[in-house]
Amino acid sequence: MIEHxxxxxxxxxxxxxxxxxxxxxxxAATALPASAAPMGYACGYSANVSIFGGAYVQQxxxxxxGGDPNALAPSRSTSGSSADLDGAKAVFSGVATIFSSPYxxxxxxxxxxxxxxSVSLASxxxxxTAKAQTVGPTPFFTWSPGFxxxxxxxxKPGGTAPDADATGTGYVEAKCIANGTTETSQVTVKNGVVDxxxxxxxxxxxxxxxxVKVPTTFSTPNATSVPYWIENVGDQGxxxxxxxxxxxxxxxxxxxxxxxxxxxxxxxxxVIAQAKCGQ
Length: 279
Hints:
By secondary structure, the chain is mainly beta. It is built from one helix and 17 strands. A hairpin with a 5-residue loop joins strand 15 and strand 16 (252-262). It has one domain (5-278).
C-alpha cells in the first residue's frame, strides 16, 4: 500500500482548477461574413487566478504574466504547428498548484504531458487544433500510464476508479473548423475524471470521496457541466466540457475543458485546450 500522508498536506494547498465566465450566445454553427479572410488561434492552457484574495495572475499561454517559464504553454495565431514536449506546471502564490500532471504513485506532481497546437488557414477555410496531454492535478485530470487514480484505495476501500479500464495517454483536444460562412467544433477528452467531492477531516482528508468519468466525446456543445466541491478547504466550482462561445466579432471559441473557480480561497478561470476560428 502506498503511503499517502504527504498528499494530505499537498491537497490542502491545491484549492482547484477553474475557468472564467461563459460569455456570448452559443450556436451550433455561427454565420460569418463571407468577405473576410479566416483567422485562427490555438492555446495549450491558460489560467487567470486569485488566491486568498490576492491579485489575479495569468499563467500559461503568452503573456504568462506570472513570470514562471515552467508554466508557459504554446500558442499560435498563424498557419503552422508548435509543440511543447515537457509540458507545464503552474503554481500560484507559492502554495496552489493549479495546473500540472495528475498525482504520481509517490504522491508528487510533475509537469503535465506535451502540448500540441496547430493552425491551418486557406482562402475560405480554417482548422485550429489544441491538445494537452496528461493534465491535472484535481478536481479534473486525464489519467495516463505511470500516474494513479486518487479514488482508488485507501481513499475509498473496496472501490475502483471510475475509469479503471482506461488505457493509453489521457488528453484534452479541441478543434474549431471554419468552412466558408460557418464553423463547427469538436472536443475529445480521453481518460478524463472529475473528483466531485473531497474528504474533510480524518486520516483521508484531502482525498476524493466521489469521482465521475468524463465522456470521451460530446454531441452537443455546452451541455456537459460537472460541479465539484473541495470540502477540506471550502472551495467549489464547476467544469464545462466542449464549451463553445460565439464572439461579438463573428469568430467562435472552443474550449476543451473550462473550469470555473468560485472560492472561497481561489477565484478565477482556466481553459485547457482552446481553439478559436472564424472570419
